[in-house]
Each structure stands twice: as structure tokens, then as C-alpha cells.
Amino acid sequence: MLSLSFLGALLQVVLIDITLAGDNAVVVGLAVRRLEGKQRRIAVFVGVAAAALIRLGLALVATQLLGIIGLRLAGGLLLLWVCWKMYRELRTPDTHAEDGGTAPGGLWPAIGRIIVADLSMSLDNVLAVAGAAGEHMEVLVAGLAISILLMAFAATIIARLLDRYRWIAWIGLLVVFGVAIELIFNGGSEVLSHVG
């Protein structure tokens, strides 16, 4: 039988996931935008599945992660590197190779960018979900599953939009850059407060 605390925690987790999944979906959409049909589906599936495993691992040690000084700063710097790679890709023309539409960089680099960006951006999401879930481990797992599904669904839509409207990719890159700067600022402040 479902208790009120369980349902309340689940509702909180779903709301957090809906709020925070957007940034991750933008990253996935940007990473796969130049891939064609089957490769795009593979990249989204593998990247999002890897993200699910990363998030589950992070969630299991969420409370210990709070104690690691500089983790947000490191995540922000890693995400800044992803932004640089995406910026360089956006500056090159949209040309597809002869081998069935493989994008410059290809399938595996796109999957790699998804994983690195998700690792950088997931910490806040995982900590918020873990805090809302409380002692309900099943709510934590359900919340992570919901966030992964939302990210995959939204990323597919975003990638299609990026195909048609290139300027949206630049806005997406600015969103991801903003998240990186926020992580660097918050993480840097945290490090400075412990140093000083």
C-alpha cells in the first residue's frame, strides 16, 4: 500500500526531474544533431543509458558527494570543455560524409560528449532527487528513471529542431555554457570558503 509520504516524495521527485531535465536534453540534442536516423537513435540510447548508470551510481553515494569540496568546480570545468567542443562543431558547416550520413566526429564522440556533459550536470539533479526521495529508495530509482526518459524524449525533439533551425543550436550552447559558469562560480565559491 502506498503511503502519503511515498506519494509526496514521488511527486517532488517528478517535479524536480521535469524542471532539471531540460539542460541535459539540450546537451544530448546538440551532441547528436548531425547524426542521421539510426546513428542518432543509437547515440541517444547509449548516451542516455550510460547517463542512467552514472546517475544511479551518484545517487547511491549522494550524501558522501556533498562532502567533496571542489566537485562542482571540477564538473563546471568539464562542462566548459564540452561547450568548447560543441562550439567548434557548430562553426563547421553541416556536411555529411559519404558513408551514410556520419557526422564529423561520428557516433562515438557524440556518445562521449553526452556522457561527459551528463556527468558534469547531473550532480545537482541527483542531490535534489535524493533529498526529495528521503528514505524511499524505490522513489529514488523511479525518479532517476523518469528523468532519463524525459531527457531521451526531449533530446530527440530538440535534435530534430536543431536540424531545421540551426540558430537554436547556438541558443542551446549558451544555455549549457550558462550551466557551466554557474557550476564554476558555485564550486569556486565553495572552494574559496574552505580555503579562507
From TrEMBL:
UniProt key word Heme: no
InterPro entries the record matches: Integral_membrane_TerC, Integral_membrane_YjbE
Domain of life: Bacteria
The entry's keywords: Membrane, Transmembrane, Transmembrane helix
Membrane-topology annotation of the record: Multi-pass membrane protein
Keyword Transmembrane helix: yes
Membrane-spanning segments: 6-30, 42-60, 139-161, 167-185
Pfam family, one: TerC
Subcellular localization(s) per the UniProt record: Membrane
Gene Ontology annotations for the cellular component aspect, listed alphabetically: membrane
Similarity field: Belongs to the TerC family.
The name this protein goes by in its record: YjbE family putative metal transport protein
Source organism of this protein record: Acetobacter estunensis
